[in-house]
Amino acid sequence: MMDAAVQHEQAPMKRERNIAPVRQPENWTPASWQAFPAVQQPTYLDPAELDLALDQLRELPPLVTSWEILALRGLLADAAEGRRFLLQGGDCAESFDDCTSPLISNRLKVMLQMSLVLTHGLKLPIVRVGRFAGQYAKPRSADSETRNEVTLPCYRGDIVNGPAFDAESRRADPRRLIKGHARSAMTMNFVRALIDGGFADLHHPEYWDLAWVAHSPLQSEYRQMVESIGNSLRFMETLAGSAVGEFQRVDFHTSHEALLLHYEEALTRQVPRHWGWFNLSTHFPWIGMRTADIGGAHVEYCRGIRNPIGVKVGVSTQPDQLLRLIDVLDPDNEPGRLTLIHRMGAKHVAKALPPLLSAVRASGRKVLWCCDPMHGNTESLGSGVKTRRFENIRDELDQAFDIHAAAGTRLGGVHLELTGENVTECMGGARDLTESDLTRAYKSSVDPRLNYEQSLELAMLIVRKRGD
Ligand code: PEP
Ligand code: MN
């Protein structure tokens, strides 16, 4: 099994920061999670069909390389020390149908524009991580759903089953694992091709313009930044006598919630030039809030892979519990290994976050702190529609910066659900979307996302907060 799992990889031309090897965790294999309670997993009715799909998946090529994974760990270690800032964002869940050229490139455009705003304002390089190329599995609050006295399994994301409310769609279908891998690979391939082709070149921010936002109220502020960056670039290039290489190509990394453990296990491989095991389906897997139980299968799986790991932290997380989790996931306090993503809600963050910050600080642990201002601010309107208010999202982020400053810790990143489409899913923002606007372009089948303008506005807020 070991030999089959060894991947052949090309070392990159340019090495990023080298992360010192530590050690392989004891009593761990890619399958050891199976002996632990695994919540949020679908029930596959035919085990032979599942095995067949997993056998195929184990043979398919990986989506990323160990070199990229270790390079990202170096970047996250820098962010933990205040030398970079993490921007992680994308859909709540990707859908197979959304694997299209415009949707992928529009999402990149938004993230590139946001990172330009952030670089300009924070005077820091930005680590860009998409919630894409694998964000297909969703945790749910109930296993089943009843409509008109019919009960069916809940929708768990396109890699498990379909959203339509009929028995066939809701059946957990292992063939979707293969399709999910393929869609992830297509997304990844397109992102890499765009980036390699110069799409992300800072000399050409006009490539990232989105047609429908020409009259946005934020455009003039954004244009001024673009102009100012262009001037600085030209100045530096005049001094250097040539193009400044770093700015011609920016990197994107991928992330998704490591939820569906059979899938993650099948993409967990060894490589010839690095010791240990890597999840080669993504650079940066994270553990969701509902699966962060210290005795659970998700923590068991993640402790053994060498990728950087994110962990969602919510209002109910206790300081001692968090410290034990850190011990399990990062026993050697390795730089860039752990990112703690707090998602408390604007109402609770002032009370819930400080005890966690002081406990982690007092323990001497080095982690990257990141704020997800989305998931603690979800609400259901009387109409049943799920939304988030921009003012609450902004408020949580705003408070998080201040709370970190007061605690002597550093907020080094932000985790957002966003899209490059002109959706109306979150209320408020520069155009002050109201409840009645939500019916106009509500496209998410899971959580509500920031649209382009709301995303850019949030980036500007971060700059105002941190950049002064
Ligand atoms: C998510 O990121 O989509 C999610 C479900 O988050 P959390 O685990 O924080 O609830
Ligand atoms: Mn979500």
UniProtKB/TrEMBL annotation:
It comes from the Bacteria. One of its GO terms (biological process) is aromatic amino acid family biosynthetic process. Binds 1 divalent cation per subunit. The enzyme is active with manganese, cobalt or cadmium ions. InterPro entries: Aldolase_TIM, DAHP_synth_2. The keyword Transferase applies. Keywords: Cadmium, Cobalt, Manganese, Transferase. One of its GO terms (molecular function) is 3-deoxy-7-phosphoheptulonate synthase activity. Its EC number is 2.5.1.54. It catalyses: D-erythrose 4-phosphate + phosphoenolpyruvate + H2O = 7-phospho-2-dehydro-3-deoxy-D-arabino-heptonate + phosphate. Its cofactor is Mn(2+); Co(2+); Cd(2+). The keyword Hydrolase does not apply. Phosphoenolpyruvate binds at R131, K312, R343. It holds the Pfam family DAHP_synth_2. Mn(2+) binds at C92, H375, E417, D447. NCBIfam families: DAHP_synth_II (TIGR01358). This is Phospho-2-dehydro-3-deoxyheptonate aldolase. It comes from Dokdonella immobilis.
